[in-house]
From TrEMBL:
Gene3D superfamilies: Glycerate kinase, MOFRL-like N-terminal domain, MOFRL domain. One of its GO terms (molecular function) is kinase activity. Pfam families: DUF4147, MOFRL. This is Glycerate kinase. Keywords: Kinase, Transferase. Residues 313-421 form the MOFRL domain. The keyword Zinc does not apply. InterPro entries: GK-like_C_sf, GK_N_sf, MOFRL, MOFRL_assoc_dom, MOFRL_protein. It comes from Cupriavidus malaysiensis. Residues 8-230 form the MOFRL-associated domain.
Amino acid sequence: MPDPRALLLESFQAAVAAADPLQVVAAHLPPPHAGGRTLVVGAGKAAASMALAVERAYEGRAALEGLVVTRYAHGLPTRHIRVIEAGHPVPDEAGEQAAAEILARVQALGSDDRLVVLVSGGGSSLLSLPADGIAMADLKATTRELLRCGAPITDMNIVRKHLSRIQGGRLAQASRAPVTTLIVSDVAGDDPSAIASGPTVADPSTFGDALAILRRYGATVPAAVLQHLERGARGELAETPKPGDAVFARVDNRMIATAHGSLEAAAACFRAHGIQPVLLGDTVTGEAREVAQVYAALVREIRAYNAPFAAPVALISGGECTVTLPAGAKGARGGRCSEFLLSLVLELGGLADVHAIAADTDGIDGSEDNAGALAAPDSLARAEAAGVTARRQLDAHDAWGFFDAIGDLVVTGPTRTNVNDYRAILIV
C-alpha cells in the first residue's frame, strides 16, 4: 500500500478531476446554434473554466458572446466570453455590476437566439443583483449575518432569492430565447433550485419561507431587507416563478457534475490500491465538530472490532458542514473542513493507523488559502511539540493555525470547480 498521506492526496485529486469543467462540459452542450446569437452567461467558482470549455467545444462552429462572473483569483484567459471577478462569500459591487449587465443582455435576446447559462457553487454571492429598494450594503450585511449564524447554504439561498432581481428563476423569466443551463452542483442532494440560487430554475420557496429562516436563526438584518420580505409575504411584491410556470417550457437544466460523482472517482482510487471504499453519503451536513464526533465513534468501532467494516477501509463522504461563530468572534482562521478534521483528531486522541483528509473541492477552505488539511496518528503529539494546544485551537475556531503549525495544510490553489467538501478517513 502506498504512503497513507500520498494516497489520501491522490484520492482528493481524483475527486476534483471528476468535476473538472474542461473535461465534462463538452458532452452536455447542445449542438451549435445555426440561427441567431449564442449568448453565454454564468456565475460561480467554476465559471471561468466552464466558459473556456464552451469556447473550445464551439470553436469555429458558433458565434459566441457573453460574460461570466467568478471569484477573485479564479479567472482564466478567454477569447469570446468575458470573465469578471467579484466577491465571495460576501457579494460586492463588482458582482452587482456584472449581474446587471448579464440581465440586460439576456433581456435583449430574441426568440431566434440561444442562451447558455453556466452555473456552479458560489454563484449566489457572485450573481448578486439586489431587488428594488435593497442596497448592496444591505445584501452584504444579510449575507454576513447568515454566515455568522451558521445557516446552511440552502436556507441562505432561499433568503437571497427573495432579495434578488435575477435569482430564483428570474433570469429564465427574462429570456425570450431558449435556455440551456449547465450545472456543477455544490449542494447536498443536488437540488438545482438551490445551486447559485437557481437563476433558471423554478423556485418552490416563498417570501414567508425567507422570513421564517431569519427567525429560526435569530438573524438581525437591515430594516430594508425585513420590510422587503414582509411586503412580499403580504402579496405586495411578485413572487419568484414557481414550478409549472410556462416560462420553464423553454428551459433545459442539465446537471453535469456532482459530489457523488467525485466520491465515486475517489472510491475507484482506493479500490485500485486494494482498499475497500465505503461511501457514507454526499449530503452530510451539520456542525463540523459534531459531525466529526460521530465519525470518530465509527472509526473506534472499526479499530476495536473490525465492524461494521474491516480494515483496511476508507470512509468517504461529501456534503457541506457548517461552523457557527459566536457574536463578535475574533481570530477565527480556517473553514469547515479543517474544523472537522481538528475535531476528529481530538476525538481519536492519536488512535493508531488512522489517517484522514478533509478539503474543499474548490481549493479554498473558509478564510485562508488552503483547500483543507491532513491528519495522522501523531498529529496531536507533533502539535504539542510545537507548543500548540488542539483544544484551545478548536475552541478559538483556529483549525488553520493547528494544521499550519504541524505542516499538514493541503494547498492546491483555486481548482475552478466546486462539488463541495471531500472527506476521507483511511483505517489501515
